[in-house]
Design a protein that fits this description.
Number of domains: 2
Shape: globular
Oligomer: single chain
CATH architecture of the largest domain: 3-Layer(aba) Sandwich
Number of helices: 16
Strand order of the largest sheet: 13-14-15-12-11-17-18
Bound molecules: nicotinamide-adenine-dinucleotide
Radius of gyration: 25 Å
Structural class: alpha/beta
CATH topology of the largest domain: Aldehyde Dehydrogenase, Chain A, domain 1
Helix content: 25-40%
Largest sheet: 7 strands, mixed
Length: 498
Protein backbone atom coordinates (compact mmCIF):
# COMPACT_ATOMS: atom_id res chain seq x y z
CA UNK A 1 0.00 0.00 0.00
CA UNK A 2 1.32 3.48 -0.90
CA UNK A 3 2.29 5.42 2.22
CA UNK A 4 2.00 9.22 2.50
CA UNK A 5 4.46 10.58 5.02
CA UNK A 6 5.06 13.86 6.72
CA UNK A 7 7.33 16.20 4.80
CA UNK A 8 9.93 17.27 7.32
CA UNK A 9 13.66 17.49 7.69
CA UNK A 10 13.62 15.39 10.80
CA UNK A 11 11.36 12.57 11.99
CA UNK A 12 9.13 11.65 9.08
CA UNK A 13 7.46 8.82 11.00
CA UNK A 14 4.73 9.46 13.51
CA UNK A 15 5.66 8.42 17.02
CA UNK A 16 2.05 7.40 17.64
CA UNK A 17 1.98 5.24 14.52
CA UNK A 18 -1.68 5.93 13.71
CA UNK A 19 -2.76 5.83 10.04
CA UNK A 20 -5.69 7.11 8.02
CA UNK A 21 -6.97 5.45 4.85
CA UNK A 22 -7.09 7.40 1.61
CA UNK A 23 -9.85 6.39 -0.77
CA UNK A 24 -10.02 6.40 -4.50
CA UNK A 25 -13.60 7.77 -4.63
CA UNK A 26 -14.11 6.63 -8.22
CA UNK A 27 -13.43 2.96 -7.49
CA UNK A 28 -14.46 2.93 -3.84
CA UNK A 29 -11.15 1.30 -2.92
CA UNK A 30 -8.50 2.33 -0.42
CA UNK A 31 -5.47 3.42 -2.43
CA UNK A 32 -3.02 4.67 0.22
CA UNK A 33 -2.48 5.39 3.88
CA UNK A 34 -1.34 8.58 5.53
CA UNK A 35 0.58 8.75 8.79
CA UNK A 36 -1.16 10.74 11.52
CA UNK A 37 1.17 12.87 13.61
CA UNK A 38 1.03 14.13 17.17
CA UNK A 39 2.46 16.81 19.45
CA UNK A 40 5.90 15.15 19.59
CA UNK A 41 6.18 15.21 15.82
CA UNK A 42 4.98 18.80 15.68
CA UNK A 43 7.66 19.80 18.18
CA UNK A 44 10.30 18.52 15.78
CA UNK A 45 8.79 20.42 12.87
CA UNK A 46 8.65 23.62 14.93
CA UNK A 47 12.28 23.19 16.07
CA UNK A 48 13.36 22.96 12.40
CA UNK A 49 11.21 25.95 11.43
CA UNK A 50 12.78 28.01 14.22
CA UNK A 51 16.24 27.22 12.89
CA UNK A 52 15.59 28.19 9.27
CA UNK A 53 13.19 31.12 9.60
CA UNK A 54 15.58 33.93 10.73
CA UNK A 55 17.91 33.45 7.73
CA UNK A 56 14.93 33.35 5.37
CA UNK A 57 13.49 36.54 6.87
CA UNK A 58 16.90 38.18 6.42
CA UNK A 59 17.06 37.10 2.76
CA UNK A 60 16.22 40.11 0.66
CA UNK A 61 12.73 40.06 -0.85
CA UNK A 62 13.91 39.86 -4.45
CA UNK A 63 15.79 36.63 -3.65
CA UNK A 64 12.71 35.26 -1.92
CA UNK A 65 10.71 36.23 -5.01
CA UNK A 66 13.12 34.25 -7.21
CA UNK A 67 12.20 31.08 -5.33
CA UNK A 68 8.53 31.88 -5.94
CA UNK A 69 9.18 32.42 -9.66
CA UNK A 70 10.95 29.07 -9.90
CA UNK A 71 8.18 27.37 -7.92
CA UNK A 72 5.61 28.80 -10.34
CA UNK A 73 7.54 27.33 -13.25
CA UNK A 74 7.76 23.92 -11.59
CA UNK A 75 4.05 23.83 -10.88
CA UNK A 76 3.33 24.64 -14.52
CA UNK A 77 5.68 21.89 -15.67
CA UNK A 78 4.05 19.39 -13.30
CA UNK A 79 0.45 20.52 -13.81
CA UNK A 80 -0.79 17.29 -15.38
CA UNK A 81 0.78 15.04 -12.74
CA UNK A 82 -0.48 17.23 -9.89
CA UNK A 83 -4.00 17.35 -11.35
CA UNK A 84 -4.17 13.57 -11.84
CA UNK A 85 -2.94 12.86 -8.33
CA UNK A 86 -5.39 15.38 -6.89
CA UNK A 87 -8.26 14.01 -8.92
CA UNK A 88 -7.57 10.42 -7.86
CA UNK A 89 -7.79 11.26 -4.15
CA UNK A 90 -10.48 13.94 -4.21
CA UNK A 91 -12.71 12.64 -7.01
CA UNK A 92 -13.05 15.93 -8.91
CA UNK A 93 -12.47 15.55 -12.66
CA UNK A 94 -8.97 16.26 -13.97
CA UNK A 95 -9.89 19.59 -15.61
CA UNK A 96 -11.38 20.76 -12.36
CA UNK A 97 -8.26 19.59 -10.54
CA UNK A 98 -6.20 21.72 -12.91
CA UNK A 99 -8.38 24.67 -11.92
CA UNK A 100 -7.63 23.88 -8.27
CA UNK A 101 -3.87 24.01 -8.94
CA UNK A 102 -4.23 27.05 -11.20
CA UNK A 103 -6.08 29.19 -8.64
CA UNK A 104 -3.36 28.43 -6.09
CA UNK A 105 -0.70 29.18 -8.65
CA UNK A 106 -2.19 32.64 -9.11
CA UNK A 107 -1.45 33.39 -5.45
CA UNK A 108 2.14 32.24 -6.02
CA UNK A 109 2.27 34.70 -8.95
CA UNK A 110 1.08 37.46 -6.62
CA UNK A 111 3.75 36.36 -4.11
CA UNK A 112 6.38 36.78 -6.86
CA UNK A 113 5.72 40.51 -6.46
CA UNK A 114 6.59 40.45 -2.77
CA UNK A 115 9.34 43.14 -3.04
CA UNK A 116 6.72 45.56 -4.34
CA UNK A 117 3.87 44.68 -1.98
CA UNK A 118 6.11 44.63 1.11
CA UNK A 119 7.36 48.16 0.55
CA UNK A 120 6.56 50.19 3.63
CA UNK A 121 5.47 53.77 4.21
CA UNK A 122 7.78 56.69 4.89
CA UNK A 123 7.11 60.20 6.09
CA UNK A 124 9.97 62.61 5.72
CA UNK A 125 9.85 65.44 8.26
CA UNK A 126 7.03 64.20 10.50
CA UNK A 127 8.47 66.61 13.10
CA UNK A 128 11.54 68.85 13.24
CA UNK A 129 14.28 66.62 11.85
CA UNK A 130 12.15 63.58 12.47
CA UNK A 131 11.17 60.88 9.97
CA UNK A 132 8.74 58.03 10.51
CA UNK A 133 8.59 54.78 8.64
CA UNK A 134 6.47 51.66 8.88
CA UNK A 135 7.51 48.28 7.58
CA UNK A 136 5.93 44.86 7.58
CA UNK A 137 7.88 42.14 9.35
CA UNK A 138 7.17 38.42 9.40
CA UNK A 139 5.57 36.83 12.44
CA UNK A 140 7.96 33.87 12.67
CA UNK A 141 6.26 30.51 12.30
CA UNK A 142 2.83 30.27 10.70
CA UNK A 143 0.60 27.22 10.36
CA UNK A 144 -2.17 26.31 7.95
CA UNK A 145 -4.94 23.76 8.48
CA UNK A 146 -6.76 23.01 5.25
CA UNK A 147 -9.91 21.19 4.02
CA UNK A 148 -10.19 18.32 1.56
CA UNK A 149 -11.99 20.20 -1.17
CA UNK A 150 -9.11 22.30 -2.56
CA UNK A 151 -5.96 20.39 -1.65
CA UNK A 152 -3.73 22.52 -3.92
CA UNK A 153 -5.33 25.96 -4.00
CA UNK A 154 -5.95 26.55 -0.30
CA UNK A 155 -2.48 25.46 0.92
CA UNK A 156 -0.98 27.80 -1.70
CA UNK A 157 -3.25 30.69 -0.59
CA UNK A 158 -1.64 30.33 2.79
CA UNK A 159 1.99 29.30 2.43
CA UNK A 160 2.52 31.38 -0.72
CA UNK A 161 1.82 34.58 1.15
CA UNK A 162 3.26 33.54 4.52
CA UNK A 163 6.60 32.35 3.18
CA UNK A 164 7.09 35.17 0.68
CA UNK A 165 6.59 37.56 3.61
CA UNK A 166 9.47 35.88 5.49
CA UNK A 167 7.79 33.30 7.70
CA UNK A 168 8.43 29.57 8.03
CA UNK A 169 5.31 27.52 7.49
CA UNK A 170 3.85 24.26 8.80
CA UNK A 171 0.96 22.88 6.77
CA UNK A 172 -1.56 20.37 8.13
CA UNK A 173 -3.59 19.37 5.07
CA UNK A 174 -6.76 17.31 5.07
CA UNK A 175 -6.04 13.67 5.86
CA UNK A 176 -8.47 12.70 3.10
CA UNK A 177 -6.32 13.89 0.16
CA UNK A 178 -2.86 14.73 1.51
CA UNK A 179 -0.62 13.72 -1.43
CA UNK A 180 -0.73 16.92 -3.48
CA UNK A 181 0.27 19.16 -0.54
CA UNK A 182 3.33 16.92 -0.02
CA UNK A 183 4.17 17.07 -3.73
CA UNK A 184 3.93 20.88 -3.63
CA UNK A 185 6.34 20.97 -0.69
CA UNK A 186 8.81 18.79 -2.62
CA UNK A 187 8.60 21.13 -5.62
CA UNK A 188 9.14 24.10 -3.32
CA UNK A 189 12.49 22.68 -2.19
CA UNK A 190 13.35 21.94 -5.82
CA UNK A 191 12.63 25.61 -6.51
CA UNK A 192 15.41 26.58 -4.10
CA UNK A 193 13.56 27.06 -0.80
CA UNK A 194 15.65 26.07 2.21
CA UNK A 195 14.69 22.67 3.57
CA UNK A 196 12.45 22.99 6.59
CA UNK A 197 10.94 26.32 5.52
CA UNK A 198 7.76 24.58 4.37
CA UNK A 199 6.94 21.38 6.23
CA UNK A 200 3.85 19.21 5.94
CA UNK A 201 2.59 17.36 9.00
CA UNK A 202 -0.41 15.08 8.68
CA UNK A 203 -3.03 14.40 11.26
CA UNK A 204 -6.50 14.82 12.60
CA UNK A 205 -7.86 16.60 15.68
CA UNK A 206 -4.85 15.53 17.75
CA UNK A 207 -2.45 17.35 15.43
CA UNK A 208 -4.77 20.36 15.08
CA UNK A 209 -4.90 20.71 18.86
CA UNK A 210 -1.12 20.43 19.08
CA UNK A 211 -0.83 23.28 16.55
CA UNK A 212 -3.37 25.39 18.42
CA UNK A 213 -1.46 24.94 21.68
CA UNK A 214 2.13 25.24 20.44
CA UNK A 215 3.79 28.25 22.05
CA UNK A 216 6.11 28.91 19.08
CA UNK A 217 3.47 29.10 16.37
CA UNK A 218 2.50 32.74 15.97
CA UNK A 219 -0.39 32.57 13.53
CA UNK A 220 -2.85 30.01 12.24
CA UNK A 221 -4.92 30.08 9.10
CA UNK A 222 -7.75 27.58 8.95
CA UNK A 223 -10.25 26.68 6.24
CA UNK A 224 -12.92 24.03 6.80
CA UNK A 225 -16.39 23.59 8.25
CA UNK A 226 -17.84 26.28 10.51
CA UNK A 227 -18.04 24.49 13.85
CA UNK A 228 -14.41 23.48 13.61
CA UNK A 229 -13.44 26.92 12.29
CA UNK A 230 -15.08 28.49 15.32
CA UNK A 231 -13.34 26.05 17.66
CA UNK A 232 -9.94 26.69 16.03
CA UNK A 233 -10.51 30.43 16.21
CA UNK A 234 -11.43 30.43 19.91
CA UNK A 235 -8.72 28.07 21.09
CA UNK A 236 -6.03 29.73 18.97
CA UNK A 237 -6.97 33.23 20.12
CA UNK A 238 -7.13 32.06 23.75
CA UNK A 239 -3.55 30.92 23.30
CA UNK A 240 -2.61 34.41 22.15
CA UNK A 241 -2.24 33.61 18.47
CA UNK A 242 -3.36 35.48 15.43
CA UNK A 243 -6.08 33.34 13.82
CA UNK A 244 -8.19 33.53 10.69
CA UNK A 245 -10.70 30.70 10.25
CA UNK A 246 -12.88 30.36 7.17
CA UNK A 247 -15.98 28.19 7.50
CA UNK A 248 -18.84 26.65 5.55
CA UNK A 249 -21.21 28.24 3.07
CA UNK A 250 -24.63 28.19 1.48
CA UNK A 251 -24.37 30.53 -1.47
CA UNK A 252 -27.47 31.85 -3.20
CA UNK A 253 -27.92 32.72 -6.87
CA UNK A 254 -30.64 35.35 -7.31
CA UNK A 255 -32.37 35.23 -10.68
CA UNK A 256 -34.20 38.44 -11.59
CA UNK A 257 -37.10 38.30 -14.07
CA UNK A 258 -35.00 40.02 -16.75
CA UNK A 259 -32.04 37.60 -16.50
CA UNK A 260 -30.78 35.68 -19.53
CA UNK A 261 -32.12 32.29 -18.42
CA UNK A 262 -30.08 30.22 -20.86
CA UNK A 263 -26.95 31.79 -19.44
CA UNK A 264 -28.20 31.28 -15.88
CA UNK A 265 -28.95 27.59 -16.47
CA UNK A 266 -25.52 27.08 -18.00
CA UNK A 267 -23.87 28.88 -15.06
CA UNK A 268 -25.90 26.93 -12.51
CA UNK A 269 -25.04 23.57 -14.05
CA UNK A 270 -21.36 24.32 -13.44
CA UNK A 271 -21.70 26.20 -10.16
CA UNK A 272 -24.13 23.85 -8.41
CA UNK A 273 -22.88 20.49 -9.69
CA UNK A 274 -19.23 21.04 -10.68
CA UNK A 275 -16.84 19.21 -8.36
CA UNK A 276 -19.95 17.33 -7.12
CA UNK A 277 -20.98 20.51 -5.28
CA UNK A 278 -17.98 20.22 -2.95
CA UNK A 279 -16.93 23.84 -3.30
CA UNK A 280 -17.29 26.51 -0.67
CA UNK A 281 -18.20 28.89 -3.50
CA UNK A 282 -20.69 26.52 -5.15
CA UNK A 283 -24.22 27.83 -5.77
CA UNK A 284 -26.49 25.26 -4.09
CA UNK A 285 -29.47 27.62 -3.75
CA UNK A 286 -31.18 29.38 -6.62
CA UNK A 287 -33.68 32.12 -5.85
CA UNK A 288 -35.92 33.01 -8.80
CA UNK A 289 -37.74 36.28 -8.23
CA UNK A 290 -41.46 35.94 -9.01
CA UNK A 291 -43.49 32.82 -9.84
CA UNK A 292 -43.18 33.33 -13.58
CA UNK A 293 -39.35 33.43 -13.36
CA UNK A 294 -39.43 30.31 -11.19
CA UNK A 295 -41.52 28.35 -13.67
CA UNK A 296 -39.50 29.44 -16.70
CA UNK A 297 -36.24 28.65 -14.92
CA UNK A 298 -37.38 25.23 -13.74
CA UNK A 299 -38.48 24.28 -17.23
CA UNK A 300 -35.00 25.01 -18.56
CA UNK A 301 -33.14 23.57 -15.59
CA UNK A 302 -34.65 20.08 -15.72
CA UNK A 303 -33.29 19.03 -19.14
CA UNK A 304 -29.94 20.71 -18.43
CA UNK A 305 -29.53 18.79 -15.16
CA UNK A 306 -30.66 15.53 -16.74
CA UNK A 307 -27.99 16.01 -19.39
CA UNK A 308 -25.16 16.20 -16.83
CA UNK A 309 -22.73 13.33 -17.13
CA UNK A 310 -21.44 11.81 -13.92
CA UNK A 311 -18.24 9.81 -14.37
CA UNK A 312 -15.00 8.61 -12.86
CA UNK A 313 -12.61 11.42 -12.11
CA UNK A 314 -10.36 10.73 -15.10
CA UNK A 315 -13.24 10.52 -17.59
CA UNK A 316 -12.58 13.52 -19.87
CA UNK A 317 -16.28 13.76 -20.77
CA UNK A 318 -17.62 13.75 -17.20
CA UNK A 319 -19.08 16.97 -15.82
CA UNK A 320 -18.39 15.83 -12.31
CA UNK A 321 -17.09 12.83 -10.39
CA UNK A 322 -17.78 11.08 -7.10
CA UNK A 323 -17.88 12.72 -3.68
CA UNK A 324 -14.90 12.27 -1.41
CA UNK A 325 -15.78 9.42 0.99
CA UNK A 326 -18.56 6.88 1.61
CA UNK A 327 -19.52 8.78 4.78
CA UNK A 328 -19.92 11.97 2.79
CA UNK A 329 -22.07 10.19 0.18
CA UNK A 330 -24.31 8.85 2.94
CA UNK A 331 -24.58 12.31 4.54
CA UNK A 332 -25.53 14.07 1.30
CA UNK A 333 -28.18 11.43 0.53
CA UNK A 334 -29.53 11.82 4.05
CA UNK A 335 -29.88 15.58 3.45
CA UNK A 336 -31.97 14.87 0.35
CA UNK A 337 -34.22 12.65 2.45
CA UNK A 338 -34.49 15.32 5.15
CA UNK A 339 -35.45 17.89 2.49
CA UNK A 340 -38.13 15.51 1.23
CA UNK A 341 -39.49 14.94 4.75
CA UNK A 342 -39.55 18.70 5.33
CA UNK A 343 -41.83 19.16 2.34
CA UNK A 344 -39.36 19.96 -0.46
CA UNK A 345 -40.33 18.62 -3.92
CA UNK A 346 -37.66 16.25 -5.21
CA UNK A 347 -37.81 17.12 -8.89
CA UNK A 348 -34.68 15.14 -9.83
CA UNK A 349 -33.46 12.54 -7.36
CA UNK A 350 -29.78 11.58 -7.30
CA UNK A 351 -30.03 9.10 -4.43
CA UNK A 352 -29.06 5.53 -5.13
CA UNK A 353 -27.16 6.49 -8.28
CA UNK A 354 -24.77 3.80 -9.52
CA UNK A 355 -22.21 4.26 -12.26
CA UNK A 356 -22.05 1.21 -14.45
CA UNK A 357 -18.76 -0.62 -13.99
CA UNK A 358 -17.98 1.48 -10.90
CA UNK A 359 -20.74 0.42 -8.56
CA UNK A 360 -18.54 0.83 -5.48
CA UNK A 361 -17.64 4.47 -6.30
CA UNK A 362 -19.08 7.29 -4.20
CA UNK A 363 -21.33 8.77 -6.88
CA UNK A 364 -24.46 10.81 -6.36
CA UNK A 365 -26.71 11.81 -9.23
CA UNK A 366 -27.57 15.47 -9.73
CA UNK A 367 -30.51 16.46 -7.55
CA UNK A 368 -33.02 19.30 -7.90
CA UNK A 369 -35.35 20.22 -5.04
CA UNK A 370 -38.12 22.80 -5.49
CA UNK A 371 -40.29 24.70 -3.02
CA UNK A 372 -37.61 24.83 -0.36
CA UNK A 373 -38.32 27.39 2.38
CA UNK A 374 -36.09 29.24 4.86
CA UNK A 375 -37.63 27.26 7.74
CA UNK A 376 -36.23 23.96 6.45
CA UNK A 377 -33.12 22.51 8.08
CA UNK A 378 -31.88 21.36 4.67
CA UNK A 379 -31.85 25.02 3.58
CA UNK A 380 -30.21 26.32 6.73
CA UNK A 381 -27.32 23.85 6.69
CA UNK A 382 -24.59 23.17 4.16
CA UNK A 383 -25.14 19.96 2.13
CA UNK A 384 -21.89 20.05 0.12
CA UNK A 385 -23.05 17.72 -2.63
CA UNK A 386 -24.55 17.83 -6.15
CA UNK A 387 -27.87 19.19 -4.90
CA UNK A 388 -29.58 22.38 -6.09
CA UNK A 389 -32.43 23.83 -4.03
CA UNK A 390 -34.97 26.29 -5.41
CA UNK A 391 -36.21 28.89 -2.93
CA UNK A 392 -38.85 31.08 -4.56
CA UNK A 393 -38.85 34.77 -3.65
CA UNK A 394 -41.85 36.98 -4.31
CA UNK A 395 -39.82 40.13 -4.96
CA UNK A 396 -36.40 41.77 -4.93
CA UNK A 397 -36.62 42.68 -1.23
CA UNK A 398 -37.16 39.07 -0.27
CA UNK A 399 -34.28 38.03 -2.53
CA UNK A 400 -31.91 40.42 -0.72
CA UNK A 401 -33.16 39.26 2.66
CA UNK A 402 -32.67 35.50 2.12
CA UNK A 403 -28.85 35.41 1.79
CA UNK A 404 -28.52 38.35 4.19
CA UNK A 405 -30.34 36.49 6.97
CA UNK A 406 -28.65 33.14 6.36
CA UNK A 407 -26.12 31.96 8.95
CA UNK A 408 -23.45 31.72 6.24
CA UNK A 409 -22.19 34.66 4.22
CA UNK A 410 -19.50 33.39 1.91
CA UNK A 411 -20.61 34.14 -1.66
CA UNK A 412 -23.74 35.22 -3.51
CA UNK A 413 -24.60 35.97 -7.12
CA UNK A 414 -27.27 37.99 -8.87
CA UNK A 415 -28.27 37.42 -12.48
CA UNK A 416 -29.90 40.42 -14.13
CA UNK A 417 -29.66 42.88 -17.02
CA UNK A 418 -30.62 45.73 -14.72
CA UNK A 419 -27.57 47.67 -13.53
CA UNK A 420 -29.49 49.50 -10.84
CA UNK A 421 -30.84 46.28 -9.29
CA UNK A 422 -27.39 44.70 -9.40
CA UNK A 423 -25.76 47.71 -7.77
CA UNK A 424 -28.43 47.93 -5.10
CA UNK A 425 -28.10 44.21 -4.38
CA UNK A 426 -24.30 44.25 -4.20
CA UNK A 427 -24.24 47.16 -1.80
CA UNK A 428 -26.98 45.89 0.53
CA UNK A 429 -26.51 42.12 0.73
CA UNK A 430 -24.88 40.89 3.95
CA UNK A 431 -22.42 38.50 2.30
CA UNK A 432 -18.64 38.78 1.79
CA UNK A 433 -18.20 38.03 -1.93
CA UNK A 434 -20.71 39.05 -4.59
CA UNK A 435 -20.97 38.05 -8.24
CA UNK A 436 -22.94 40.06 -10.76
CA UNK A 437 -23.73 37.65 -13.61
CA UNK A 438 -20.71 35.72 -12.28
CA UNK A 439 -21.76 32.48 -10.59
CA UNK A 440 -18.58 31.76 -8.59
CA UNK A 441 -17.14 35.12 -7.61
CA UNK A 442 -13.78 34.01 -6.21
CA UNK A 443 -11.70 37.20 -6.24
CA UNK A 444 -8.44 37.18 -8.21
CA UNK A 445 -5.21 36.82 -6.26
CA UNK A 446 -4.49 40.56 -6.00
CA UNK A 447 -7.83 41.12 -4.28
CA UNK A 448 -8.66 39.00 -1.22
CA UNK A 449 -10.93 36.08 -0.39
CA UNK A 450 -13.18 35.87 2.64
CA UNK A 451 -16.77 35.33 3.72
CA UNK A 452 -18.82 36.90 6.49
CA UNK A 453 -20.90 35.64 9.42
CA UNK A 454 -20.30 31.93 10.11
CA UNK A 455 -18.26 31.65 6.91
CA UNK A 456 -15.32 33.50 8.42
CA UNK A 457 -13.98 34.04 11.93
CA UNK A 458 -11.30 36.67 12.43
CA UNK A 459 -10.88 39.94 10.63
CA UNK A 460 -8.53 39.37 7.73
CA UNK A 461 -9.14 37.63 4.43
CA UNK A 462 -6.96 35.17 2.55
CA UNK A 463 -4.26 36.31 0.07
CA UNK A 464 -3.89 39.70 -1.66
CA UNK A 465 -3.24 42.67 0.60
CA UNK A 466 -5.37 41.15 3.39
CA UNK A 467 -3.29 37.98 3.32
CA UNK A 468 -0.14 40.02 3.53
CA UNK A 469 -1.54 41.84 6.56
CA UNK A 470 -2.37 38.55 8.24
CA UNK A 471 1.13 37.12 7.86
CA UNK A 472 3.03 40.24 8.92
CA UNK A 473 3.16 42.75 11.76
CA UNK A 474 3.84 46.43 11.33
CA UNK A 475 7.00 47.93 12.81
CA UNK A 476 6.77 51.71 13.25
CA UNK A 477 10.08 53.56 13.53
CA UNK A 478 10.39 57.21 14.47
CA UNK A 479 13.93 58.41 13.84
CA UNK A 480 15.92 61.50 14.47
CA UNK A 481 19.59 62.00 13.77
CA UNK A 482 20.80 64.98 15.83
CA UNK A 483 23.74 66.90 14.45
CA UNK A 484 25.41 66.76 17.87
CA UNK A 485 25.54 70.58 18.33
CA UNK A 486 24.85 70.33 22.07
CA UNK A 487 23.09 73.73 22.41
CA UNK A 488 19.71 72.23 23.27
CA UNK A 489 18.23 72.86 19.84
CA UNK A 490 18.15 69.13 19.29
CA UNK A 491 16.03 68.46 22.37
CA UNK A 492 13.50 65.79 21.58
CA UNK A 493 10.24 67.11 20.25
CA UNK A 494 7.16 64.97 19.97
CA UNK A 495 5.97 65.36 16.41
CA UNK A 496 2.66 67.17 16.14
CA UNK A 497 0.52 68.02 13.18
CA UNK A 498 1.38 71.69 13.83
P1 LIG B 1 -13.39 19.89 8.01
O1 LIG B 1 -13.82 20.99 8.90
O2 LIG B 1 -13.90 18.51 8.27
O3 LIG B 1 -11.80 19.75 8.03
C1 LIG B 1 -10.95 20.87 7.88
C2 LIG B 1 -9.66 20.61 8.63
O4 LIG B 1 -9.95 20.48 10.03
C3 LIG B 1 -8.94 19.35 8.21
O5 LIG B 1 -7.57 19.60 8.10
C4 LIG B 1 -9.26 18.36 9.32
O6 LIG B 1 -8.23 17.43 9.54
C5 LIG B 1 -9.42 19.25 10.52
N1 LIG B 1 -10.37 18.71 11.50
C6 LIG B 1 -11.39 17.85 11.25
N2 LIG B 1 -12.06 17.59 12.39
C7 LIG B 1 -11.47 18.30 13.37
C8 LIG B 1 -11.73 18.46 14.77
N3 LIG B 1 -12.74 17.83 15.35
N4 LIG B 1 -10.93 19.28 15.46
C9 LIG B 1 -9.92 19.92 14.86
N5 LIG B 1 -9.63 19.82 13.55
C10 LIG B 1 -10.40 19.01 12.80
O7 LIG B 1 -13.73 20.37 6.52
P2 LIG B 1 -13.66 19.52 5.19
O8 LIG B 1 -14.79 18.55 5.18
O9 LIG B 1 -12.29 19.02 4.96
O10 LIG B 1 -13.91 20.66 4.10
C11 LIG B 1 -15.19 21.06 3.72
C12 LIG B 1 -15.66 22.27 4.50
O11 LIG B 1 -14.74 23.34 4.31
C13 LIG B 1 -17.00 22.78 4.02
O12 LIG B 1 -17.74 23.20 5.14
C14 LIG B 1 -16.62 23.97 3.14
O13 LIG B 1 -17.62 24.94 3.00
C15 LIG B 1 -15.47 24.51 3.90
N6 LIG B 1 -14.63 25.35 3.06
C16 LIG B 1 -14.66 26.69 3.28
C17 LIG B 1 -13.91 27.53 2.48
C18 LIG B 1 -13.91 29.00 2.72
O14 LIG B 1 -13.02 29.67 2.24
N7 LIG B 1 -14.86 29.55 3.46
C19 LIG B 1 -13.12 27.00 1.46
C20 LIG B 1 -13.11 25.62 1.27
C21 LIG B 1 -13.88 24.80 2.08
Amino acid sequence: MRQVNHFMVDGAASSAGRKHQIWNPSTGEVQAEVALGDAVLLDKAVATAKKVQPAWAATNPQKRARVMFKFKELIEQNMQELAELLSSEHGKVVDDAKGDVQRGLEVIEYACGIPQVLKGEYTLGAGPGIDVYSSRQPLGIGAGITPFNFPAMIPMWMFGMAIAAGNAFILKPSERDPSVPVRLAELFVEAGAPEGLLQVVHGDKEMVDAILDHADIAAISFVGSSDIAHYVYKRGVDNGKRVQAMGGAKNHGIVMPDADLDQVVNDLAGAAFGSAGERCMALPVVVPVGEDTAERLKEKLIPAINALRVGVSNDPDAHYGPVVTPEHKARVEEWITIAEQEGGDIVIDGRGFELQGHEKGFFIGPTLIDNVTPQMKSYQEEIFGPVLQIVRAKDFEEAVKLPSDHQYGNGVAIFTRNGHAAREFASRVNVGMVGINVPIPVPVSYHSFGGWKRSGFGDTDQYGTEGLKFWTKVKKVTQRWPDGGGDGSNAFVIPTMG
